[in-house]
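<amino_acid_chain>
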Amino acid sequence: MHKLSYAVADGWAPHSHAAVYSVVPLEHGERVMAGIPNGESAAFVGLVSDLEPPYFLLYVLHTPRGEGEAGRYQSPAVSQDEFLGFVRRFSSYLSSDARFDMWVHSAASRGTVVWDRHNQLFAYGPLAKYCSSLDELGFVHGDATISFPHQHHYRKEFDDDAKELLEIWPWTYSPLRPEDEQ
């Protein structure tokens, strides 16, 4: 299964990013941008592991299917083991459903890693560490931009996982911001 499809002559085909990344200039600094091949969690876990715990997860639910209210759900502080268990438990959902974006922040490292609904990673903070981790995972320099007609998939088969995800921690809820909405 996949989060994203792209338009082809007779319909839609699954989209998988190549293992590419780039360092992108911003108004104030830079960030790493990478594609996530086949929606696999290894690059996300690798970049988050470059950060010092505790972590704070921000689950941005922009397209709910009855499991909760659209909004931002912030976790309490979690350890690296808790984070890794979370990713293991929800790996299929994280890689195959586009109803959310997942942010992980480390105050100690001043870093944030974002896995978005397009299977793209955005990483802020220790850029050299991120680039090194991606190099070790076999990523090469390239463009992971989504600049083509595409559709997102919100899969019924993950409704139970989405509901359980919202029940595993005492998340703190806040409304979506304008930039969160699709």
